[in-house]
Amino acid sequence: MTDYNKRLILDGKTHRRVRDSSVIINDKLTAIWEGYKNNEIGTMELLSKCSKVYSPSEKE
User: Fold this and answer.
1) 3-state DSSP call for residue 16?
2) Is residue 41 part of a domain?
3) Whole-number pLDDT of residue 22
4) DSSP per-residue string spanning 5-29
5) Which of 46, 52, 43 is CA-nearest to residue 32?
6) What is the share, in percent, of the chain residues with pLDDT greater than 90?
7) What is the pLDDT of residue 28?
8) pLDDT score, position 43
9) Range of the domain at 43
10) Using one digit for the tens of pLDDT, what is the confidence trace for 26-48?
11) pTM (predicted TM-score)
């Protein structure tokens, strides 16, 4: 069990395990969204980066 899962369970926010892959995806999306909120990237780049998070792994 990851530290993330332990924290959620102890805080009473969940009663189930969160997959490591879901945590990784969430972290990536959060970082992308923060860049958008801080005006570091535009709307098109936001959408492009988000789509790459969910697409099959490819070398860029």
Assistant:
1) coil
2) yes
3) 83
4) HHHHHHTTS-SS---HHHHHHHHHH
5) 46
6) 47
7) 94
8) 97
9) 3-54
10) 899 999 999 999 999 999 999 99
11) 0.66
What's the pLDDT band for 8 if we cut at 50, 70, 90? Answer: confident
Degrees to nearest 5, angle at CA 36 with 52 and 32 = 35
CB atoms within 10 A of CB 32: 20
Domain count, the chain: 1
Encoded tokens for 30: 């959060």
49 with 43: CB under 8 angstroms?
no
Q: What does the block give as tokens for 21?
A: 């892959």
The token duo for 31 is: 């970082």
**Is residue 20 included in any domain, yes or no?**
yes
Number of residues in the chain:
60
Is 40 among the domain residues?
yes
Is residue 60 a part of any domain in this protein?
Answer: no
